[in-house]
Write a structure and sequence with these properties.
The chain is of the alpha/beta class. The chain has twelve helices and ten strands. A hairpin with a 2-residue loop joins β8 and β9. It is globular, with a radius of gyration of 21 Å. Bound molecules: iron/sulfur cluster.
Length: 331
């Protein structure tokens, strides 16, 4: 009975639920269109499938608000930029829990591109929605909704590639946090479930959230997934804590990314040389408006080619972005 929204484990023809990602055509093959009956799809962002109690709590919390209030606006969205391609972003002020003074000062999130009202409201909306879903249904409910954003990042020719056995023109990749960071264990667990589910997508992330033990353990589990690469984001302020965290975590899980300021702590490179056999370190000389500080030359470091000039930014969503062709930071 393939109608009225009931899935019974068969391919569905002629009906697609409103919550299904738009890029799936109606004739999608069975492995794509099946949703087991025992797992009702809760990938809605307006609370409609969250149960009456959730809706009542939400209504009480917004009493007296106008319909224009941002409290009525929920959803999870990706950004797409000319260096990394698809990325998920959160507001720095609420999620960069271990931001150093250096990264606050040099963060490229300070750039004008990230300061537009549209960009800011998208990040706030992602955070508001993530918090709401975690509160109402824990990591499992946020995971179900993060699946929708990963689906958004599928290459345009993904289905063609499945049918013909060819490669997609660009790989399926998603950077977790173009801006923002992991701020709670439950939030990390939601991403763990998501990355685990989408083995065909490559994920990567940079983080400074390695000071809290429980949070770092959760992040290490995420970074250990075969289709995910985690990089400890370091600078002159926090490299010692990063080295300690790296040494406590299982071998081969973490790499490092250095934010190179114009002046570096003189102890930094010698300290990194103590762990050089167990880690790849990518260096990002501070850059802004096409200019960068002179890159540090050291056998320990690989300078990011998108910063030092080896790879140019690509505007089109359908062409290989610098990170997708370089892949140093990717799994
Ligand atoms: S080193 Fe490569 S993958 Fe990493 S940020 Fe630079 S271009 Fe992207």
């Amino acid at each position: 009975m393939p109608f009225m929204g009931t899935y019974i484990g068969k391919a569905t023809f002629g009906w697609v639920p409103t919550c299904w990602p738009l890029q799936f055509p109606r004739w999608a093959p069975p492995q794509v269109a099946i949703v087991p009956k025992s797992k009702p799809n809760r990938q809605l962002t307006c609370g409609a499938h969250l149960g009456v109690e959730s809706q009542q709590r939400w209504a009480a919390s917004t009493q007296g608000e106008t319909q224009m209030s941002t409290k009525f606006d929920y959803g999870l969205d990706l950004t797409n930029n000319s260096k990394v391609g698809w990325a998920f972003s959160l507001p720095r002020s609420k999620t960069c829990v271990n931001a150093t003074n250096i990264c606050k000062r040099l963060c490229y999130g300070n750039g004008i591109r990230y300061q537009s009202a549209g960009q800011k409201s998208k990040k706030e909306r992602n955070f508001r929605t993530a918090e709401f879903l975690l509160r109402e249904g824990g990591p499992e409910l946020l995971f179900q909704n993060l699946c929708t954003v990963v689906e958004q990042a599928r290459p345009r020719d993904w289905l063609t590639a499945q049918i013909t056995g060819r490669q997609t023109v660009i790989p399926w990749t998603l950077r977790i946090h173009d801006v923002g960071d992991f701020y709670s264990v439950d939030y990390v667990r939601a991403w763990f479930l998501t990355v685990q589910k989408y083995a065909g997508c490559k994920f990567w992330f940079y983080t400074r959230s390695f000071l809290d033990v429980e949070l770092f353990e959760a992040l290490s589990s995420l970074a250990a997934l075969p289709n995910c690469q985690g990089l400890l984001s370091i600078d002159s302020d926090n490299f010692e804590q990063a080295i300690i965290a790296k040494c406590k975590s299982p071998a081969g899980v973490w790499n490092m990314a250095l934010l190179q300021d114009s002046v570096l702590n003189s102890n930094l490179v010698p300290a990194l040389s103590a762990i050089e056999d167990s880690v790849d370190i990518v260096n990002f000389p501070y850059h802004r408006s096409g200019r960068h500080v002179a890159p540090l030359r050291s056998k320990l470091l690989t300078n990011c080619p998108a910063v030092v000039g080896g790879l140019s930014l690509k505007a089109s969503k359908d062409s290989l972005r610098p990170c997708q062709s370089c892949t140093i930071c990717l799994p």
